[in-house]
User: What shape does this take?
Amino acid sequence: LSLNLIDLPGTYSLAARSPDEMVAVDLLLGRRPEEPRPDAIVSIVDASNLDRHLYLTSQLFDLGVPVILAVNMVDMAQAQGLRLDFAKLGEALGIPVVAVQANKGIGIEALKKAIAAAIDATELPQGPRLSVEFEKEVANLQAELGDEIPPILIRRMLLDVGGYEIGRAHV
Assistant: This one.
């Protein structure tokens, strides 16, 4: 298996708050001419700060590509007394979850296998279901703004107050 990995600028949300974050969002949406849309996304999170990182991971479900969660710095979380059940987390999220300790190369082979399996998977992760009224508003805005702005950006514009202005996005 041969993989091309792209390390994107760190972000905590798909509601980009800077031009660097917008580059990451555009690449994930396949809107960067120099790179194709990714076949899968590996969301790397800090085991000792899951709540902050899982917000972005849950947003990635809306992109329509497989998502793999790599939980890094497990050793630091354990040193803080945190005990994580990765199988249960994966079941709750509906995606593969792999514990890694990147600085020592622990879990990398398991991560590679999870990526290969996710690329071949037929089921994609499902994000949270939003109300019918919300989806109607997204459809109304989509009709007003046109097809050049992906629905995911319209959703993020409505949900994430203070994100990067849609008019300044690479449209």
About this structure: The longest strand covers residues 41-46.
